[in-house]
Amino acid sequence: MRIVTRTIDARADTFDELRALSLGHVARSRAELGCLEHGVAIDANDGLRIIFFERWADGPALGRAFQGAGIAGVRREGRGARGAFSATSTTGRRG
Length: 95
Known about the structure:
Blueprint: E1 2-10, H1 15-30, E2 35-42, E3 49-56, H2 59-67, H3 70-77, E4 83-91
Antiparallel strand pairs: 1-3, 1-4, 2-3
Helix pairs in contact: 1-3
């Protein structure tokens, strides 16, 4: 199983657009083969930070997701001064 977390730090003037793009991204990902869980939330401590949490069945499923529109589409559409992106990825085992 692969667990991925991502954050987008938006600006106040672009937050609504990035939120909408993020919701679309999550909806597409949930339909992909191997997606076990995918959610998006707003950070309670920083109202401009959008947080993603994903669980994928395995590395190949995650790889296929990265080849699709996925987060790259959100990055492309929300590029530039609209938001800064960071990501971390960890591998876990089902237990």
